[in-house]
Every structure is written in C-alpha cells, then in structure tokens.
Amino acid sequence: MNQATLRFMATAPRGLADLAARELRELGVVELSERTAGVRFAGELRAGYLACLHSRVASRVLLEVADFQAADTDGFYAGARAVDWRAHVDPALTLACEFTGAHPTITHSQFGAQKLKDAICDQLREATGARPGIELDRPSVRVLAHASGPRVLLYIDLAGEGLHRRGYRQQAGEAPLRENLAAGILLRAGWPAIAAAGGGFLDPMCGSGTLPIEAALIAADIAPGLQRDYWGFARWRGHDAALWRELITLARARMRAGVPNSIRGSDRDAAVLRVAATNAARAGVDSMIRFDACAASSVRPEGVATGLVCANPPYGARLGDEAAARAAHRELGAVLREHFGGWKAAVLTTDGEAAHELGLRIARKHELWNGALPCRLLRIDLADPGAPARVPGAPRIPDPELAASPGAQMFGNRVGKNLRLLGKMARAHSVRNFRLYDADMPEYALAVDHYVDADSGAVHLYVQEYAAPDSIEPAAATRRRAEALAALPVAAQVEPAHIHVRVRRRQRGTNQYTRVAQQGRYTRVEESGLNFLVNFSDYLDTGLFLDHRLTRQRLRAAAAGRRFLNLFCYTASATVYAAAGGARRSLGVDLSATYLDWAAENFRVNGLAPAQHELVRADCREWLAEARAASWDLIFLDPPTFSNSKRMTGVLDTQRDHMELLGHGMRLLAPGGLLLFSTNAQRFKLDEAAARRWAVTDISATTIPFDFQRNPRIHRAFELRARG
Description:
It is a single chain. The protein is of the alpha/beta class. It has four domains: 6-157, VC0802-like (2-Layer Sandwich), CATH 3.30.2130; 179-221 and 258-381, Rossmann fold, CATH 3.40.50; 400-504, RNA methyltransferase domain (HRMD) like (Transcription Regulator spoIIAA, 2-Layer Sandwich); 532-722, 3-Layer(aba) Sandwich (Rossmann fold), CATH 3.40.50. The chain is built from 21 helices and 30 strands. The strands form six sheets. It has an eight-stranded mixed beta sheet. Helix 2 crosses helix 8. The protein is globular. The model is unreliable at 316-320, 386-397 and 505-518 (pLDDT under 50).
C-alpha cells in the first residue's frame, strides 16, 4: 500500500498552517495546499509517516479513505458503510470514532460518531462475523469523519492522538503550553536560524519547561515523534512496519550531539523547575538545558551576544489575576529593554493591556490559539526596543526644530509635490508601490520608495541614501540626511516608525544583494493583482524591484502556454507574473538559498503549485553551461551588475560577461522563443556582435515606469529572438 499515491490532511493550531506547509515541503512533499486548519497533501505512505515523525507543529496526520456526498443521516451511514473496512480495521481489536464539522442533518458530534461506529461495525460483522471493541483512549484504529455541508471525508488518524503528546511531559505546571504550539512559536520567531548561528535561548518564565525543551529538540534536530510510545497506525492493517523502522533509523542518525547552544529556562517556582528538569531528561535533552530558580527581573544574557528570549507570561484569562499579569509583563519588558540589547524576543499573550505593559515596540504580531484561547504572539527586536530603526543623524522622533529648518522645508516641499503628482499617476495606473523621490535635488541624494502594506493599509517609505562623494564634508551629508528624515513624516504623511533607511554605495565587484541586518520582518504588498513579500530591514533591496514593473507585465503578456525560465531569479517576482499570465511550467535558478526560500513564500502567497513552478539552487553561469535541451519558450535573464559571492565560481561582471550569458540562454530557447535580457548597469553597452547573431530589439524606453522617468537609464532591456 505504501507505493500508492494517498491523500492526507495535517491539521495544525490556528495560525500555524503555513509553518506546517513549510515543514512538509522540507520533508520532500511537493503536492500540497494550505488550509485554515492545516495542510492537505498527497504522496506515498512514506510522506504520511514522515509528517507524523518530523512535524513539530501538526496536531494530527489524517489519511483519507473516503470522500462522498451525504444529504442526510441515512446517506452518511451508507457512505461510511460502503468503505471496505477490512483493509483498515482488525475486527478482533479496538476502534474509536469521531465526527467534526457542520452537516445538514447531523448536528451533534456524538451522534455523528455513533453513526460512523455503527456503519463500520455493521459492515465488519457482515463481512467477517466479528466486530471491534470500542476504546476511546488509545484504540487500535481511530476513524474521523469531517463534514462540510453534505460533503463528508473519512480519515484514519495515523497518530491516533494529538501529535503534541511527544511523550516527555508526564507532568505539567499550571496552564501548560501545548508542545506543538510551543514549537510553532519558536519557528515563527526564527529560532532555527538563531540556533544555527550559535545564538542563545532563554525562557524566563518557563514553568514545566516546554519552550526550552522544544528549543533544544530543534537545535539538536531531534524528531519530535521519536519519544512517543503510541501510534495510531501501529495496529492499522495498512501499516508498513519495515518502512517505519527505516524512517526511525534515519531520524536517529540526524540527531546532533553536543549542540553548543546556551539554552536556559528559569522560574520563581523551584518545584515546577524540578518537573521541568524531569521532562527534559525524559526528552533526552537535559544535558542541553540549564534551569535556574529566580525572578524574571534577575535573568541576564550571561555573555551570549545574540539569541532569543521566548516567554509565555501569566495573563489574567489564564490565572485569574489581571494585576499580577500586568506586573509580570512590566517586569519582563524592563529586563529585556535594559539587558538584552541585540537579542530578539517572542512573547505570547492574550491581554492587550498586559502586552502594553511590556513597553517595547512590537515588530510583528501573529494571531494564534492555545487550545480554545485566542492569543497573540508579539515579536520584538531588542536591537532597538523602544524606537524605529534609525541611522546616525536620524532623530529618534522628528525633531521640530530640525523639521523647521530651511533645508528640511525645501526637501519636504519637493516630496509633497511629488506625492501629489506621482500619487495621482499611481492611482490612474492602479499602482500602490512606486518611487516617490530620486535625488531630485542633488544636495539631498536619496531615493524614496513608497509601499503600501496590503494587510493593514499602512504606508511605508524605503529610503536609500546614496553615499556622498568625497568632495562633500561628512558633517554636511549627515545634516542633510537628518533634515530629509525629519521632513519626511509630515511631507509624505507617514508614521516615523514606517520610515526605513539604508545607505547605498556603488557596487564595485561585490554582490548587490548583501545582507545588512537579520530581523526577518516581511510585509505583503500588492502589484497588478499579485502578492509579494518585501523586507525593509535586512537587505539593500526590498525583494521587489519597482523599476521592473512594466518588464514583469511584459513577461506576463508573453507567458500564456509557455515554458518559462527565470535566471538569477532573486525572489522570483517575474515568475509570479509569468504564472499569472498562464505559463504552463517555470524554473527559477539562483545561488542564494535565502532568496529561493523567499521566492517559495511568494509562490505560497499567490497559490502557485511547487510541482509546476520549480526552484533550483545553482550558480547560473555553471547551470547555463551544463544545460543542454532547447526546451524554454520564454527566458528572463536579469543578472546582477557585479557579484563575487563566496559560493560562486569567479566574479560576475555583466558588462564583460553578457555575451557569454546570452549565448547560453539563446541556446536553450525553443523555436520561436523569446529571451528578455535586462540589466541595471548604468553604463551598459550591448556588444555589437549580439545584433549580428540574433534579432535584437532595444525595449528599454518602453519598460521605464512613470515614476522612474527622471532616470531613464535606471535599467536597460532587450528582447532577443533567433534569426530566421
């Protein structure tokens, strides 16, 4: 049975379905679709077993055994009885049944579960002369029916009981956090990357230790299912014991010993810490965690420069003491602000007033559910916990005196004028994200891009400061930058916290996408009806090149029914456009794992199937040289001006190397195909040999959007086709 293509549903706590989908992709599952309550996916039995063993956030892994329409109770009974339950249930063993969802006539879950049990037992008795016993706690097989109107899906629960039951927590403190929710919080907060970089971990209110234990399991790559002593599939008739033993062996081989991370948990209650230590020992990670009995106000980084503070502080709805909850949040906020600069924090809370007591700027909020209790996960960057990110010379808040200076007034007037004119043009073109200012006045050498958060409607300004030439005194450059930043909030009608500043220097032999920070904040923006995630803090570019807006539209118009190749694909925004235009298949190639992960997220927020739109990590030049088949109808080639990435062979110089790149790209074009080549090299000149070898059309002028008309050399673009 394990070689057949099966359909599964991995349920997850509300707010964590995207993390469950990411886990499944990392496990090799390619056919999946995200739902509010989890992820539907397909594959061999191996995929279901891997999800059971390795998913940290899934609540259950369900194997679909039937999908039918049932308008009434009799139809439900008949549909359930039509399944050959001999393939799943041994009538000599035990059974449990559940019913969930909303059905036209079955309005009580207990009644639905009873009818499901009757259908299974009646069919087995008729076929075998025997029927299984009923056992609600750890049955041999658990069957679940889920109704969505008249449609009914029947599942085998492969886990048998919640996957949050890892097996290590036999005791818990008051109001414990479910293990899979704890893991989801850590994944959402970026703990895997922090752990891989050697960062520390601290839970200053750890209770029975769930967060530190899950942090240690992640850091050591210990599969969360390894400690479980009960699986719902163990006595299911479709179980492949040999396959399961193989996966267990592989999971144990992945475990890392001697993980150097500093992982700590602390709590005022020494008795609950003894429970935490016992749980950690049962999980096999006691050697990785130190537990200390102390107040949250006493914790310190202890020599670890970076890391994650993760806490589930008491809140009034949980412990019935709102005053104590607010005091706990206030205590936590004070110690984070005073002692954990450079760290990140993640705080789970339900009480907005208590959360306000933290006194910290919240970078991101995520809606989660702890069982039936709605919660919010607050993510905080403690590099600057009380104010927007800023650069030297930029005021923490707009300085009224500086904003009133002649220079600031002059700059603000220009920005205000641009906002009126360009804003009107943007509305006419249904554009929300555009370049607002681009060194219009030479003494204020800034580029200001205007973005709109598609979820909140908030406006963000992404300010890039061109490095001043040596002829400009540093003090003068600093003063002008400060004047501009002081004027922007009023002139552009933007909150100061939504102004993000970067210094851009000319790239000479270096990778233009170098990382400059590591905050991991992403904002969803819309362009031409499509979704893109942008990052205002970590890189010199946001992930969406605004000057390529018309180029992307050109690709969408040309993509219908075509096979699309995106070289140096970056965050794959061009692929999203091509897919929207009807490309039947695409391949994106880039050397950066970071940007390919980002591209995959852009695919996810646009509902693109990974099986149809593939991403490959490779050096594009090497990949091009080795590729053979002329199988692409549409190719987009947009190399960086320069790149000397350590992962890359040699140095890429687009002016020097473009004929080599074009030659390989044209070799891969199918008959009648089109290659669109673009470069942001300001002084680029196409080699004259290109026009002799191929039919070349310079389309640069037609691809410059209205907001970049002041700089018509922002990029060059060419269409190439084979001659004849």
